[in-house]
Amino acid sequence: MRYIEPHAHMVSRTTDDYQAMAMAGCQAVCEPAFWAGFDRSSAKGFYDYFSQLTQHEPRRASMFGMPHYTWLCINPKESEDLALADEVLAIIPEFMDSPNVLGIGEIGLNKNSRNEMAVLEKHVDLAARREQLILVHTPHLEDKRKGTRLILDVLKGDSRIRPERCIIDHVEEHTVKMVLDDGFWAGMTLYPETKCTANRAIDILEVYGNERIWMNSACDWGISVPLAVPRAAQEMKHRGNDHRFVDKVVYQNPIEFMSQSPRFILPEGH
Amino acid sequence: MANRKNILDLYFLDARARLIDIAAFMDRVDRADGETDFRHDAFREALKALDSGMANRAEKVLLSFSDPTDEPIPAATTKAACGAWPGADNA
């Protein structure tokens, strides 16, 4: 099996995870900027993190023959502090010419606050000015429906933004339709408890089809499974989905979306 | 289109186990002392969707736990989500 992991926080994972992913058929790994599990004390912390994402982590992935791509931002969990957000936004351009940067992400909302909205709009402006792809985090649990609606309104309200260049991640049954209907890409995150299970993700594919949609593990420092995508692919086959249908979701679709960035290099043998 | 019998063959035991887990969870809450909160109320409300006969039960369950409002909140006072909307007065 071949697959692409389009959303993984590998800085939080062990080298054993890279090895297991490579052995499971992972052809590339993509890492959006994320919250560390604690608030960084200054923009310097982000400077080091962006250096890690653009320099150190690609070297780590390359040990297993895996290209590593990344997305940059200040995560919505740290967007309540507008002054810090402005400082971080100011250093992002310094890293945007790094060869593994695909765009701006994972931006979005967490608790759907006014400050989070303001920082989201600034990220969208930066992406538009630099003609970058956008990867969006939608809020958790009870905040997801409202947050997804607010995010879509921000993106649709900026005439420079093309929906086909934005992936709206962590969709579930109550948000996937609004995302796809508005022309955006949708990401389904396979988490044991708080997002989609593999079976629910496959249900969504059966109901809404396999165009403009992908699956990811979003593995990080919390309870998450780095091999969630190949496990879900296996379940798809178990359910009777044919090889081409599975391959499109876990391999072809991530390539189709990310190839909109000239930095994304097609996997060997594609 | 999948065959219903095949779906039952594949997933009945898994769903049965999860259903018993839900029943046991509700029993556990009932056995415990003290008051419940909005999460318990939301959970009981969500259960209604299961027996509704509608085709989109998963969506209905998710919506029953969701914040139904549309305006941004003034400020985030926590980073965490708890799984159920506490209501406008407690959000």
Structure at a glance:
Chain A is α/β, with parallel strands linked by helices and 270 residues long. Chain A contains 9 helices and 8 strands.
General description of the model:
The complex is a heterodimer of chains A (270) and B (91). Chain A has one domain: Metal-dependent hydrolases (TIM Barrel, Alpha-Beta Barrel), CATH 3.20.20. In chain A, 44% of the residues lie in helices and 15% in strands. Chain A has helices at 15-24, 43-62, 82-95, 114-129, 144-156, 176-181, 198-208, 228-239, 243-258; strands spanning 3-5, 26-32, 68-72, 101-108, 133-137, 166-169, 185-189, 213-216. Chain A has an eight-stranded parallel beta sheet. In chain A, strand 5, helix 5 (144-156) and strand 6 (166-169) form a beta-alpha-beta unit. Chain B is an all-alpha fold. Chain B folds into two domains: 1-33; 35-66. Helices cover 55% and strands 0% of the residues of chain B. Chain B is built from three helices and no strands. Classes of the chains: A alpha/beta (270), B mainly alpha (91). The interface between A and B is medium-sized, with 32 and 29 residues.
Oligomer: heterodimer
Query: Which structural class matches the secondary elements of chain A?
Result: alpha/beta
- Assign an overall shape of chain B: extended
CATH class membership of chain A? Alpha Beta
